[in-house]
Amino acid sequence: MNLAKPLLEEIDRPGLSVNERAVLRCRLARNLEEAGDYEAASEALAELWQGVGSRPMVAGLDDETRAEVSLRVGALTGWIGSASQIEGSQEMAKDLISESLRAFEQLGQRSKVGEARSDSRALLFPIRRIRRSPRDVKCSTDRIQRRRRRTKGYCRIPKSFYRKSVRPIE
Predict the structure, then answer these.
(1) Are 83 and 38 in contact (CB under 8 A)?
(2) pLDDT band at 130, cuts 50/70/90?
(3) Per-domain residue ranges for the chain?
């Protein structure tokens, strides 16, 4: 990915604080997650998270960074747990995303609240079980594009959504 290399170089910079390094790792994980590379996104957070089934290590981080790490770990737990059919992963993902949602609401960060809500909706409505025609997906994305023009916040749809869910009608 084009954005991964500069972020990796910036993460390795020696003068960064723990919070700055964690935020950069979350940004890298989000970029990889949007590209559909969930395992690489998990590896990007390896310093903060041991994998699906474990909570992130957020001791020493400020509230905003703690919420961001919880959001990324929750989203990845949901995607990886769903793909690997890991027992209890969806519930843990929902709990982590809910924690981050409450923290962002307390901090007054409306864009992050929207992102957390978008991620929690994606967990509640598993995309890979849907059978849609390309025409239905096109209509859905057109509606989202129209809504984006009217509102400041919008729902993220990972690029991997289109590859996994679009199947011809039988």
Answers:
(1) yes
(2) very low
(3) 4-125, 128-170
